[in-house]
Amino acid sequence: MRVLGIETSCDETGVALYDGERGLLAHAVYSQIPIHAEYGGVVPELASRDHVRKALPLIRQVLDEAGLTREDIDAVAFTAGPGLIGALLVGAALGRSLAWALGVPAVGVHHMEGHLLAPLLEDSAPDFPFVALLVSGGHTQLVDVTGVGRYRILGESLDDAAGEAFDKTAKILGLPYPGGPALSRVAEQGDPTRYRFPRPMTDRPGLDFSFSGLKTFALNTLREAEAEGGGGIDAQTRADIARAFEEAVVDTLVIKCRRALRETGRRRLVLAGGVSANRRLRARMGEALAAEGGEAHYPRPELCTDNGAMIAYAGWQRLAAGASEPLLFKPRARWPMEALAPLTPAIETEM
User: Fold this and answer.
1) What's the CA gap between 208 and 223, in Å, rounded?
2) Residue 297: strand pairing partners
3) Are residues 52 and 146 in the same domain?
4) Among 102, 107, 193, 309, which one is least packed by beta carbons within 10 Å?
């Protein structure tokens, strides 16, 4: 079964074709960064309009790359939530309409389930069960995964998601949009010993996160440095603050993930979402888990950010199990992942 996947939950238009026998055939992503950079963040109305402009050309591009036509599509999967409701409506209306016109089934996919399952597209895909760290601009969650659709939330951010904290701190430091990648680039030049930020909520039991305080700590550190410098800071001080912030976020995520693996008895950890592409996080997490006999699994960097491949694959999983979307579809800006129907039997034992 060949599934066309359409992702339009925020500011990236993603389209992909996934074949149940041959794997990922083709995928393409159009990023709206140049549009939103002028405003320092995503403008929902502009995001929706650009999805309207770019979705159909991307579908044609992906079909051409795969050497297929619309008649070769067996089903359509689209992101039904969570996300910006206007952006979701574009992809959902296009996906459901295309499926109706072709006479094939359609299914709405949970955006975070797409991220969670993205590492299964790799040759080194982990077996169930595992713990997943979903870490992006909108979500930071630890999930115990025992099968497709069998998700138990272990902990999540009580305020800012990790990616959101990256973006806000980058803005405080005067870095360009998108802030997270810009902050990580600057942090490479930072002195890791000059400043030390707190590791929030690591000194108490539990698996929840809180990153808003790190943003405030960065702001106060910046103001103190500006006062010492007579009203400004040099590039090195900016890099040192960025490095201290990134180190604090990475350490916090590593501590919580190790704790989650110990509490669940799992050995495998999956990292997914935009922040999972962070090189410092990957290196630190890999070292920490290897020292304890654990494994860390990631999707390739291009599948960490929002993309159509993860939606096509998650859709294929649900379509193969008999799920489908009626003509009356319902995108959801908010959608708890635990509400998803399980598709496979729970696997509790490590292989």
Assistant:
1) 29
2) 270
3) no
4) 193
User: According to the model, what pLDDT value does residue 324 have?
Assistant: 86
Dihedral of alpha carbons 26, 113, 97, 12, sign: negative
Sign of the Cα torsion 259, 263, 269, 270 reads: negative
Q: Are 111 and 81 in contact (CB under 8 A)?
A: yes
Q: Which domain holds residue 143?
A: 128-298
- Residues in binding site for Fe cation: 111, 115, 306
8 A C-beta contact, residue 335 and residue 82:
yes
For residue 138, which of 118, 119, 166 has the smallest C-alpha distance? Answer: 166
Task: Using CB atoms within 10 Å of the CB of residue 154, give its burial: 0 to 12 exposed, 13 to 18 middle, 19+ buried.
Answer: buried
106/19 same-domain check: yes
Q: Answer whether residue 50 is part of any domain.
A: yes
Q: Are residues 35 and 72 in the same domain?
A: yes
Does a structural domain hold residue 344? no
CATH of the domain at 312: 3.30.420.40
Q: 350 lies in a domain?
A: no
Residues 208 and 226 in one domain: yes
Indicate the length of the chain as a whole number: 351
Residues placed in the known binding site: 111, 115, 134-138, 167, 180, 278, 306
Q: How much is the pLDDT for 351?
A: 65
Helices (H) and strands (E) in the chain, counts: 10, 10
- Domain match, 85 and 38 both: yes
Task: Note whether 157 and 282 are same-domain residues.
Answer: yes
User: CA geometry: angle at 118 spanning 1 and 36, to 5°?
Assistant: 110
Known binding-site positions for substrate: 134-138, 167, 180, 278
Shared domain for 161 and 307, answered yes or no, is: no
Lay out the sheet containing 2-7: strands in order across.
23-31, 12-19, 2-7, 75-81, 106-110
Q: Which residues of the chain have pLDDT under 50?
A: none
How far is the C-alpha of 89 from the C-alpha of 94, rounded, in Å?
8
Give the global pTM: 0.95
The answer to whether position 123 is within a domain reads no
Same domain, yes or no: 96 and 216: no
- Whether 187 and 169 have beta carbons less than 8 Å apart is answered as no
Question: Can you give the pLDDT at residue 350?
Answer: 79
